[in-house]
Amino acid sequence: MTLPYLPINSAADRFVDRRHLWLVFRATSIYRLILAALLLVAFVLDEQNRLFGQQEPWLFLGTAAIYMMLAVISIAGSYWRQPRLSVQVHLQMLIDLTALTIMINASGGLASSLNSLLIAAVAASAILLPLISALLAAALGFFLLIASWLIDRWQAADTQARLGHGLDPWTGFWDHLGNTSDDWVRLGILGSMLFIAAGLTHALAERARRSEALARQRTWELLEVAELNQGIIRHLQNGVVVVDVAGRLELLNDTAREWLDIQNAEPGTPLRELSPALSQRLECWLQDSGPDISPFRPAEYRPELIPRFTRLSGRQAASVLILLEDSDQTAAQLQQIKLAALGRLTASIAHEIRNPLAAISHAVQLLEESTSANTSDQRLARIAHDNVKRANRIIGDVLDLARRDRIKPERVALASWLETLHEELLRSLDGPLPEWHQQIDPAGLTVVFDPHQLRQVLWNLCANAYQHGVRSGETPQVELRAGQENSHGRPFLEVRDAGPGITAENITHLFEPFFTTRAKGTGLGLYLARELCEANRAQLQYLPIAEGGSCFRINFAPTHSTLEKD
Hints:
Layout: H1 11-45, H2 57-80, H3 85-106, H4 115-126, H5 131-163, H6 169-178, H7 181-234, E1 239-243, E2 249-252, H8 254-259, H9 271-274, H10 276-288, E3 305-311, E4 320-326, H11 327-369, H12 375-402, E5 410-413, H13 414-428, E6 435-440, E7 446-449, H14 451-468, E8 477-484, E9 491-497, H15 504-507, H16 525-535, E10 539-544, E11 550-555, H17 562-565
Parallel strand pairs: 6-8
Antiparallel strand pairs: 1-2, 1-4, 3-4, 5-7, 8-9, 9-11, 10-11
Helix pairs in contact: 1-2, 2-3, 3-4, 3-5, 4-5, 4-7, 5-6, 5-7, 11-12, 14-16
């Protein structure tokens, strides 16, 4: 089975791969240092039996000492990384084969127990060497063993010839070669083991490297997917909260943090400390597992939230996923679907009605200006003219509703913008001028809203405060207060008056279309104002005042995110 080639695509991947190879080389060098130290200790402690170096003890001792020093130099080179890795690996391979062959020859040749160390040395070199170099290392080790064995046979024949136990050294040498069939078998087995160790170790090392590269690639992919999921969850318009089986917080996105008015929430914090109302509904759901969970409002000026509870599957089955939906947004979406078709229909009808109304208005004006009309006819003409104007205002409001989706949100600096509105409003009034109070904190507060639609909303609210928010015999008072719920919260604007307030039975119908307490009112002013606020991701609420008067509060969308979403 061939593993697919996995290219290293980035500088970071190449850095990680090279660093890993240097660590492997350092580990093999430490193994050589420990091996040389053990051989020296065994040689020193076993002076009588001489398990190692029995034929040439001083040659064995010197070779082991030099091998140990070269291992130390190799470890230092792995830290300095000079020369490059491939050069150091090949040099270390040559040192291993040479030193071990000398020590094997000094310890009895093929009968020595050090032969297995030569196999281990070839296997260790094959971890970092290319396949060709690994096979060459096995071949070189095999040839060194044969050369060492031949040298040993020649020395034995030469020794016998000098002692007079044989003929000339060459004749004895060839006789030894013919009578050592066991040595040939050992050489064949050792050579086979060298090649098998080189090939098998290289294949396993290459497979491990490719598996590591694949694991690293999959790890980066998982990290990217996890980061993408975190970004998606963080910027969802719905709130997302994840708690464990003990009700401790695990995950909280920005929307849920804003809706629940949570500033600092660390993982592991109990949910009951962050939102008691949500924690209570979670406990009810865990006990009953029922789908009907009542909505709740985290604070007086926060939107009403609808919680949805779901158990996570898999290993995190004990955790609970809580989805928070803004009931106002849900209702607004449903209403948007209904108004999409209704808006087109009402717009076309309004345009068609305006044409006959214009003709009626023109005829009434001619009737009012007629010299032959008596007083009764002129009074009837004025009534007709006033109702035509009222019908025109209704049609204008209906057209504004049809155009509510054509918003162009901008950042509006409230201080200067409200001053301009104040001047325009005063110029349009026919009665006594009201007392105007304006308070903005901070002074540079900005909101995100369509300026034209914001003018419509505030013009309507200020006009209502001027007309309804006054007691008999007193000067009308209009007070505007603007601020933020906290340092990074939603900005708000309140329009207050000092009138008698609104009765309890009328509050429930306050924002319904065509509901009015004025004889000449259209009943679309507050309804239109709320619709325009919702189109700009704001909320319009009525707040009664205990000491008397009325307060209409606009909760604007957060200025740091609205423009980005649009």
